[in-house]
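Collaborator request, handled under Task 6.
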Amino acid sequence: MKRANVTCCMAVAITWLSCVAYADGNSDAYQKPFQRWLKDNGQQSAPVASDSSSPVQSMPMSYTQSQATMLNAVPHATPPSPESKEAFNAMIQQNSPLTPLQVVRLRQMIDESQRAAAIPATVPPKPVSTTLMINLAPGATPPAIRLAQRHITTLVFVDSTGAPWPIASYDVGDPKAMGLQWDGKSNIVSIQAAQPYNDSDFVVRLVGLATPITLELVTGQRVVDARTDIHVPGLGPNSKDVVSGAGLPSSANQLLLDVLDGIAPAGSKLLTVKGGEAQGWMLGDALYLRSRLTVLSPGWVGRMKSPDGMIAYQMPLTSSILVSQYGLPVELKVEGL
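Structure tokens returned to the collaborator:
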């Protein structure tokens, strides 16, 4: 009740001071007594400015000073009785039993528990990007796609020229074990394992291809296929860069598949290619070139292209290769033959 009276008196004093200052046109005679009254009652006010055009601002109080100021503003009262102290301490113990230091330590322990709960039981699998060549011949073993829980695997279907081959439909052996996403028109499908250890199979039908493609979905592996480019033998509906009479790459050419992934053919010799961004290897009487540039001369024997534009060539041994770079002919020099 006394604290409410103090607040009421402050409001009355402010109103009275404003009215008198407004009436007389000079508030200096009334501001100083009022500020002295605030100081006597534990309040802090801004110092009086000598010139109204350049006010003087006081420094803001700290958290501890603000607490002390509010405690000093409390009207004086008789000391609390032992029963009042005991009731107050019991209420504090019931509503806030922990000290500030214990509260901070508790939050740290909760943070450590949440961090420990997020750590997997084993080392997370290593994500890799791979390339697969589908064999549609009868009796061929379906290739395996490595999946992992909380890891998304993207399958990209392309034809022999590297052009996108749209998906017509798909089926999965265990829909509850695998989560799939497809926009209904593109050549890309995303797969995620819903369980840590549960294998299944995946059947895909491509637009214009009579033979369905079967893939084995394997989970719980130490390596996960983050992106897999699946090359399907034949020409898809989006194929545009086929050279007349050149034919298609052989579906059994695993060397070109390795070169496309940047893997040197077994037993090959690394060559130095100057004049453009390219890699070259010599294996027997053949030259394997990996580049995003289009080879113009000499004529290549085999070629494979990935969806990101990388091309693997197989051609006769030569020290000079003519390529197209941004529409201009550029010569590549091959050293180390």
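The cover message to the collaborator said: "The chain is about 25% helix and 30% strand. The longest helix spans residues 2-24. Please let us know whether this matches your experimental observations."
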